[in-house]
Amino acid sequence: MWVRVARALRALRRAALLLPLALTALALLLLPRPPPLAPSPRSPSAPAPLREEPHVQVQQNVITEPDYVAGHEDESTHLPWFMRGGDRRPAQHEPEAKLFPEDAPGDDRVVQQLMYTLPKNEKVPIKKILLANGFGAWGVAAGRTEFVRNKCPVDRCTLSADTRDAATADAILYKDHHTPFNVKRPLTQIWILYYLECPYHTASLRPSSVDVFNWTSTYRRDSDIVAPYERWVYYDALVTEKDLDRNYAANKTKKVAWFVSNCHARNRRLQYARQLSKHIQVDIYGACGSHHCPRTDPNCLEMLDRDYKFYLAFENSNCRDYVTEKFFVNGLQHNVLPIVMGAQASEYAAVAPHNSYVHVEEFASPEELASYLKRLDEDDNLYNSYFKWKGTGEFINTYFFCRVCAMVHANERRQRSAHYGDVQAWWRDGACTRAEWRTTQRDTRDNG
Hints:
Low-confidence stretches: 1-76, 442-448
Order of helices and strands: HEEHEHEEEEEEHEHEEHEHEHHEHHEH
Distance between the termini: 140 Å
Structural class: alpha/beta
Radius of gyration: 36 Å
Largest sheet: 5 strands, parallel
Number of strands: 16
Strand content: 5-15%
Mean pLDDT: 85
């Protein structure tokens, strides 16, 4: 009993202690609230300091970079299927695609042909292409293998080397020469003449063969199917230069190199090189010079990257649009600045990456060219400006037979009729010169 009484007394004392606190809280709740305080004035925030854009500065053989390099988000570029890592295929048939020379004068139309496709809801027949020179001349297999393996957007074609197909083939492809088949030619059959080399190094056709061809396929940009030695394509047509991440002049101690074996070229390139060597160091390797490096030795081209600043990418002939591996491979695909001779300056500009070479006809003489090369040799910033194109694109596989197949199908759909009245005149007349182009053009104007 006494225990219960003690517990009751403790509860009463606890309640007595809490009662004043409860009454105080109740009073505070019943009091009127004061008006809200006005915000205190403050000065506007100062803008965050701007972050300087990263840059690369080339100066006296040294590339300096800031400590901070901005990051870039990886974005899908959706490159076309014929570029490395590309997956973009032609989405739909474009009836008015610019595929033929008359569609886009001055353009090679290679990309348009690679991105051409047929309507997806039609049953498309197989077109037969006869290779008059056989499979060995082309390095391809019979049947549809070439088209299916390469995943051509237009793959409804088959290749044949059987002469019995001459009367039924949709197209016949002749390489370098024409030997007619002893069969009646269908009216709609397309005859294509293919040349790899320039007019000086291709055989003339017989008079009976000059007016039988419908299409041409050569390196010339006005051919029906252009077959370039190399084809450069930008990742983004609006981006033709990138900041450099290296100095291409660093540690190079030699000036000009040239690998050459033909000492009697029609454009007198050897004589030009010898005149140039009177004003700047020119090391000529091969049969025409005093330096030697076998073609089979991979160190020869590596030597260009390591030691030389300039390379003479001189063609053996000055012919229209004639730009070969001497420029594309020996020059551009190594870390040297190509000095070019061959096609006209405007024709190099049409096929080369932006600001990637020096053309000899930009200068009045070899001595004047040598003076400019010396200036480049002494100015790393100026020299490196010729390498800013690197990383902005790539040399593509032009998938020749994919394009032949696409063109044969497109020709039928458009009911296009093409014919060369004299393919030899088209190929040879005014196409080459033994002199400089500017001299030839001046003579033409004077005689006109």
